[in-house]
Amino acid sequence: MELAHAQEIFEQLYSGFSGYDIARSEKERMGRQEAATTYGEVIPAAFHDVMLAASPKEGEVFFDLGSGTGKATILAALTFPFSRVVGIELLPGLGDAARQVLGRYDAEIRPRLPPEHQRQRIDFIDGDFLIQDLSEADVLFAHGTCYGPELMGKLTHKLEELKPGARVVMAGQTLASPELVFQKMKVMKTDWGSALAAVYQRR
Ligand SMILES: C[S@@+](CC[C@H](N)C(=O)[O-])C[C@H]1O[C@@H](n2cnc3c(N)ncnc32)[C@H](O)[C@@H]1O
């Protein structure tokens, strides 16, 4: 769907709550104050622009590694012809918020969209992306500006196991691995400032 139409739907779905407030209270509740749980969100046009650099193709599967309230995942579903989109999030309160948004999308918006959107599978999974199965992923996004060196080391090893040809859009960090071939770099505006987003392809 056109970005402008996707943006209208996106604004409707996300009006009325703050991912920042949910993240703050979830971090306190879970006792997770590590840098990696620092919250931040994509903005539609900038996210769309960096995703174009990964050349998503019809029927491919998208994963957001650290999906927050699901903004990148929902935008990926609306604007690219993925057969499945998956958000994985560590803080369950953020995952709950994403599933609430998905519930509204399924009830109020999806029924009036074309068949390709009816067929699309959208999942929000609670958990650590380091221990989730990513073997189905063709295009992955990680908004990881605050992911520390240890997490980035483990994530890099995890991404080395992706299927050949899979693309990773890594915002705020770089990936150093002979298995992940650098393709492009873009500036991605976010709701908190801007990050460099690098696109890699699994060899
Ligand atoms: C900067 S936010 C990005 C949210 C969303 N992707 C976006 O761009 O709008 C990063 C998210 O990653 C989550 N996160 C950090 N480490 C994680 C891990 N190991 N597994 C799953 N989620 C993680 C954080 O809790 C946070 O919600």
Automatic annotation (TrEMBL):
<dbReference type="GO" id="GO:0008168">
    <property type="term" value="F:methyltransferase activity"/>
</dbReference>
<dbReference type="Pfam" id="PF08123">
    <property type="entry name" value="DOT1"/>
</dbReference>
<feature type="domain" description="DOT1">
    <location>
        <begin position="1"/>
        <end position="203"/>
    </location>
</feature>
<keyword id="KW-0808">Transferase</keyword>
<keyword id="KW-0489">Methyltransferase</keyword>
<keyword id="KW-0156">Chromatin regulator</keyword>
<protein>
    <recommendedName>
        <fullName>Histone-lysine N-methyltransferase, H3 lysine-79 specific</fullName>
        <ecNumber>2.1.1.360</ecNumber>
    </recommendedName>
</protein>
<dbReference type="InterPro" id="IPR030445">
    <property type="entry name" value="H3-K79_meTrfase"/>
</dbReference>
<dbReference type="InterPro" id="IPR025789">
    <property type="entry name" value="DOT1_dom"/>
</dbReference>
<dbReference type="InterPro" id="IPR029063">
    <property type="entry name" value="SAM-dependent_MTases_sf"/>
</dbReference>
<dbReference type="GO" id="GO:0032259">
    <property type="term" value="P:methylation"/>
</dbReference>
